[in-house]
Amino acid sequence: MKFLHISDLHIGKRVKNYSMLDSQRYVLAQIIDIINKERPDGVLIAGDIYDRMNPSEAAIECLDDFLVKLSETDAEIFVISGNHDSSGQIAFASRIIASSGIHMSPVYRGKVTPFTMEDEYGRVNVYMLPFVKPIHVRRCFENEDINDYSDAVRVAVRNMNIDTDERNILVAHQFVTGASVCEVETNVGGLDNVEASSFGKFDYVALGHIHTAQNIKKDRIRYSGATLKYGFDEKSQKSVTIVNIGEKGNIDTKTIPLVPLRDFVTIEGNFENIMEQYRYKELNDYVEIILNDEMDVPDAFRKLNDVFPYLMQIKYNNTRTRSLKEVSEVPDRKELSEMELISSLYEYQNNQPLNVEQTEYLQKVIGDVMGV
């Protein structure tokens, strides 16, 4: 039996005030094309469907269009809520739309009923566990000792009463200890860690929450990764994961790359050189520019934005920014003359002293102001 595994759509997300909806529609259309070509029996969508719990109308329309197209395929579709989603919103009308082959995770109440599929090797049971916190599971199992996220998932899985003689899949959205994260995910990990052993003996665990595709335990526990990059530090190729499940214990996976409408590109160099090199080129990617100029370029963002229509941010990489001095190194201003005070401030901000020309000019200005 074949499944397609994706996660972290983050529909409606904005990055540096740019809406990602056009890029998201573009990649979702690719996913539909892949489904029509690969013809999986099921599609596993492991949470963070929206980017926020109160999505915009445009984001809702985008998901609605995607679900309609999914319903027109031959696959059973399994969707769970992530930590960015409202579990109640994802669960809305789930029993009605299930007849269209779209299975949305209900709000967690302690009971997870699997959807069962069959092939020549027997039954495959798909369990959907929305993002849960210890308090969610504790409410349902008051007599259980639940102190952290690992306990919560372990108790939730144990109470699913899975038949380990059959093939079982879990769709979940948690941070598993050992997973690699990137800079845009600095808010994950730590207290919300879940040990891989908490997932019991599932044949495949389709995870969401981490944006980098990776295996946690060979092919058995896997993050498919986000379908798009959302930051300049994300270097990995985005993809969908295809999971083939044969007889019990026989699983293999492969990835199919996704091509973004716009990539995230970093350009570094001197302002004038960058302007000259790219002035007559079309670059429609999201751009971060790192300037090496020692002095800040006046109105740099506006000037660069004329050349790079999707410029997101500019930074400086120069003597000043590479090794800013600690505040503690700045001398007590009460002990400094006017000249020393301004010179020390300049050196603190720029990590280099005034040159001869600057010093002479500053001395003249101070002299004129002080009347000396």
Give a brief description:
Helices cover 29% and strands 24% of the residues. The protein has 372 residues and is α/β, with parallel strands linked by helices.
What's the overall geometry? elongated
CATH topology of the largest domain: Purple Acid Phosphatase, chain A, domain 2
Note the beta-strand portion: 15-25%
- Tell me the count of domains: 3
Helix content: 25-40%
* CATH hierarchy: architecture of the largest domain: 4-Layer Sandwich
Return the structural class: alpha/beta
The number of E-state strands comes to 19
CATH superfamily of the largest domain: Metallo-dependent phosphatases
List the helices and strands and how they pair.
Layout: E1 2-6, E2 14-15, E3 18-19, H1 21-38, E4 42-46, H2 57-71, E5 76-80, H3 87-91, H4 94-97, E6 102-104, E7 115-119, E8 122-128, H5 134-140, H6 149-158, E9 167-173, E10 175-176, E11 193-194, E12 204-208, E13 214-217, E14 221-223, E15 239-245, E16 251-257, E17 264-269, H7 271-278, E18 286-291, H8 300-307, E19 311-316, H9 319-322, H10 338-350, H11 356-370
Parallel strand pairs: 1-4, 4-5, 5-6, 8-9, 9-12, 10-11, 12-14, 17-18, 18-19
Antiparallel strand pairs: 1-15, 2-3, 7-8, 13-14, 15-16
Helix pairs in contact: 1-2, 5-6
